[in-house]
Amino acid sequence: MGRRWQLERRRDHYYRLAKLEKYRSRASYKLKQLNQRYGLLRRGDVVVDLGAAPGGWMQVALEEVGEAGFVLGVDLQRIKEFPNKNAVTIVADITDPSVVEKISERIPRPADVIISDASPLISGVWDVDQARSVELVRSALRIAEEVLAPGGKFLAKVFQGALMEDLLKQVKEKFEFVKVSKPSASRKGSAEVYVIGKGFRHSR
Ligand SMILES: C[S@@+](CC[C@H](N)C(=O)[O-])C[C@H]1O[C@@H](n2cnc3c(N)ncnc32)[C@H](O)[C@@H]1O
Questions:
Q1: Residues with CB under 6 A from ligand 1
Q2: Could you give the 3-state DSSP secondary structure of residue 179?
Q3: Which residue's alpha carbon is at the smallest distance from atom 23 of ligand 1?
Q4: How many domains is the chain partitioned into structurally?
């Protein structure tokens, strides 16, 4: 990490707020804002969080679903355990087809919401990074096909670019309501946006 990057990070409003409010990541505020706008998380929901490390979105999801709900976090990296009994984390690759079984084994019933903030390792070559980001969303959709309850909700980060139109077509086939949104906590310079799907049409 460069010195300039570290200085900018310290100046960043959401970074400082996350430290103050004890969130594991400034990304927590993106989920808070998207949830406020689109009403994604409800008391008692079962939530699957893909690409969940270090766990900032899981913290927000746990607050929203309460003790009657359940949150499963999946990441390539180990996520530090939560004290909550209704929070479970697993180390897994969301692009690997075997992840579906691992998720199904851990959730108490089909999920009400699937959220994904998964990001590829950035190569710096824009087309490559966008293609990898779209592939992560397609993996999240494949997982939704198997573990999301009919009528369920979906939220996934994607890098904008040429493949976006095709991806949105695919999301619209699976969900009744589809929107693309950029919360204000998302850095203006970043190309990330969030795809929201509501009213999952189950095709099995
Ligand atoms: C921006 S971080 C997520 C931050 C998280 N939402 C939070 O609030 O703490 C993106 C995560 O995606 C994960 N990721 C990337 N590719 C993945 C894959 N194929 N399977 C599982 N996790 C993946 C990375 O390991 C990284 O932890």
A1: 24-25, 27-28, 51-57, 74-77, 93-95, 117-120, 136
A2: strand
A3: 51
A4: 1
Q: Of ligand 1's atoms, which has the minimum distance to the CA of residue 94?
A: 20
73 Cα–ligand 1 center, Å: 10
Handedness of CA 152, 177, 93, 96 (dihedral sign): positive
Task: With respect to residue 34, please indicate whether it lies within any of the assigned structural domains.
Answer: yes
Would 63 be classed as within a structural domain? yes
CB 175 within 8 A of CB 198: yes
Q: Indicate the helix (H) or strand (E) that contains 180.
A: strand 175-181
What CATH number does residue 192 fall under? 3.40.50.150
One digit per residue, the tens of pLDDT, for the chain of length 204 reads: 577 766 666 678 999 999 999 999 999 999 999 999 999 999 999 999 999 999 999 999 999 999 999 999 999 999 999 999 999 999 999 999 999 999 999 999 999 999 999 999 999 998 999 999 999 999 999 999 999 999 999 999 999 999 999 999 999 999 999 999 999 999 988 899 999 999 999 876
pTM of this prediction?
Answer: 0.95
Asked if the structure places residue 13 within a domain, the reply is: no
